[in-house]
Amino acid sequence: MTSQKLFCFGHRGASGHEPENTVRSVRRALALGANGVEVDVHFADGQLVVIHDDTLQRTTNGQGRVTEKTFKYLRSLDAGLGEKLPTLAEIFDTINLRPSSMSNSKARIPRRRWSRSLPSMSTAAAGA
């Protein structure tokens, strides 16, 4: 008899506990026992910036479209509780560069959308 393990992924980190898509939220999700996290990524001013919406109003103290702002401006915003909008690299650093902790990361690039799924925990386990 085989048993199956349930994997729990934090949606936008621990968005019910901390400001979504922030380093703080990702840390909290992992501290709460999540096997991984899902975050949303936009390409803005040459950087992969972690934020869900196409616009800034709902999750930050900024205004306008993410892709129309400079990285310096985006980093100056408060994403909640003093958190800054992180880069995807900062999220990877937070999870100790464990790509298997990322599931269904989506990058939004102006006029061209793409989605790339990184190996999930179950895929990584199957290959081990």
Write the topology of this structure:
Elements: E1 9-11, H1 23-31, E2 36-38, E3 40-44, E4 47-50, H2 71-76, H3 88-94, E5 106-109, E6 112-115, H4 121-127
Parallel strand pairs: 1-2, 3-5
Antiparallel strand pairs: 3-4, 5-6
> How far is it from the N-terminal to the C-terminal residue, by CA?
20 Å
Named CATH topology: TIM Barrel
Largest sheet, order of strands side by side?
4-3-5-6
Estimate the strand proportion: 15-25%
Walk me through the structure.
By secondary structure, this protein is α/β, with parallel strands linked by helices. The chain has a single domain, classed as TIM Barrel (Alpha-Beta Barrel). It has 4 helices and 6 strands, in the order E-H-E-E-E-H-H-E-E-H. It has a 4-stranded mixed beta sheet with strand order 4-3-5-6, with helices on one face. A two-stranded parallel ribbon has the order 1-2. Strand 1, helix 1 (23-31) and strand 2 form a beta-alpha-beta unit. The longest helix is centred in the N-terminal third of the chain and has 9 residues, at 23-31. The two termini are 20 Å apart. Residues 107-128 have low confidence and may be disordered.
